[in-house]
């Protein structure tokens, strides 16, 4: 791609994604709540994966 060549093949997304100049900053408390929710979803997915692996004979995966 010519544009990539002009940028010395730097494929950093910030070179190619146009932003409107506004950054959305979340309040810390809100970000922490979202992080906690995401961590719980991850833990649940880990438990489900461990269960599937166990039924397939791949035991020993502690979550």
Would you spell out the secondary-structure blueprint of this structure?
Elements: H1 2-6, H2 13-16, H3 28-55
Quick rundown:
With 63 residues, this protein is mainly alpha-helical. 59% of the residues lie in helices and 0% in strands.
Please, could you describe this protein's structure?
- The chain has helices at residues 2-6, 13-16, 28-55.
- It is mainly alpha-helical and 63 residues long.
- It has a domain at 25-58.
- The longest helix has 28 residues, at 28-55.
- The chain is flat, with a radius of gyration of 21 Å.
Give me the number of helical elements.
Answer: 3
Q: Could you tell me the strand content as a percent range?
A: under 5%
Main sheet, how many strands, which sense, barrel?
Answer: none
**Mean pLDDT figure:** 86
CA-based shape: flat
Helix-and-strand structural type: mainly alpha
> Level of helix content?
55-70%
Alpha-carbon distance between the termini? 45 Å
- This entry's quaternary arrangement is single chain
- The count of β-strands is 0
